[in-house]
Amino acid sequence: MALFDAYARSYDAWFTTLRGQVVWEVERKLLCDFLRPRPGEEILDAGCGTGLLTRELAARGVNVTGIDISPAMLAVAREKTREFPNVVLACADITALPLPSCAFDGVVCFTALEFVSRPGEALREMWRVLKPGGRMVLGVLNALSPWAWARAGRGVFAHAHFYSYREMRALIKETLGRVPLRWAGAVYFPPCCPEFCLRYTGLFELLGSAFARPFSAVLVFRIDKTG
């Protein structure tokens, strides 16, 4: 049984809470700002899980292929995206994608590499299916964030490998060589932040991105395939 099968039906519950909604809005905005999806493009959502980002991209008119190793998570994603004819979902391992080379305008992988035992192979596969001129966006949970300390050893996160900025940058360089890269952080308020403080999320993000970028809950990288 895939690791996430046991969590599939309860996975989205946190995103219905006020805190979860605020976190997802911040993450979603940064991911889409980096990916810049355009209607009609072919985008791969690698490790799509329950389809939160898949649905967001489909609603923007993108043709989305969602890949995940968990059949149970994909079942939830199918329910969530059944109104969108521009979504194709398939069960597969992102370290061995059953997809042709140079097939996608963009590839996004959000909080999936943490659970992959061979992340370098996953990066190579995602790079392989990306068209020249395309862009790959990677989002990972930050090892240096208070959110990682709060999550460590709990539930599905007991199986996760959290990444620091330096470690992630080294993995990208080791796997893909010297490639055009930019990065940013998302979610700077602490997990213990009282709910009334969530109204100041914009201020947290502004100050965090200016003074504490390596310590955000999530690190997001964009890599451009120039040739």
UniProtKB/TrEMBL annotation:
InterPro entries xrefs: Methyltransf_11, SAM-dependent_MTases_sf
GO biological process, one term: methylation
Gene3D superfamilies in the record: Vaccinia Virus protein VP39
A GO molecular function held by the record: S-adenosylmethionine-dependent methyltransferase activity
Location of the Methyltransferase type domain: 44-137
Keywords tagged on the record: Methyltransferase, S-adenosyl-L-methionine, Transferase
Record flagged with keyword Cytoplasm: no
Coiled coil start-end: none
Keyword Ribonucleoprotein applies: no
Descriptive protein name: Methyltransferase family protein
Lineage of source species: Bacteria, Bacillati, Bacillota, Clostridia, Thermoanaerobacterales
